[in-house]
Design goal:
The longest helix has 19 residues. This protein is about 25% helix and about 20% strand. The chain is built from four helices and eight strands, in the order H-E-H-E-H-E-H-E-E-E-E-E. It is an alpha+beta fold. It is globular, with a radius of gyration of 19 Å. The chain has a single domain, classed as Roll (Mannose-Binding Protein A, Chain A).
Length: about 200
Amino acid sequence: MKMLFVTLLLSMSVSLTSAVRQPCPTGMKNILTSPLFGCYALVDPTKGLLTFEQAEDECRAIHFRASPVVMNNRGELEHIIQFAIDEGLPRGGKAGFWLGYFRDVEAPLEANGTLSAGSAAIRKDRSLFHYRYGIAFLPVQDPDLWRNDQQPGDQTDERDERCTAQKKPGNPKFLGMDDYPCEGYQLHYAVCTYL
């Protein structure tokens, strides 16, 4: 009787897990080893390192509603990192992959090359980072997603770091979001999601 109950419970949990997996468009897949919902894809790394805009374009080429990955917490980020590594994400350098969180508000240097207090405050304001979901802008849910307390806004030079990435994937010391210039100071690979 006990064995029948365990078998029934196990089959119910597999069915429930399968029930929450959405069908994925061509070129995307569920992360089966993870409780994450949604579909994911690593953009072919042989295409090279990308700017944030190029990463967005590559994701949309896979599916018109796909975008660079977003997550709710570090545990989910770890699942995404492992998925990307398993799919062939190159490791060993500083480059990682773009995340879908960004800041619309610019914080440039003054004409004399200095960073004003106002621009410095904008660069450090975590509440200004969000991701686009349809027509909504959703904020970063967990402040612990940032790699450390210096993120964002650790640069005071011409680099207005308005986009985010996971650098050095697989190295636990670097787990979490870092802010980067969107335009190409540091290029990254693309991992896409379709929720």
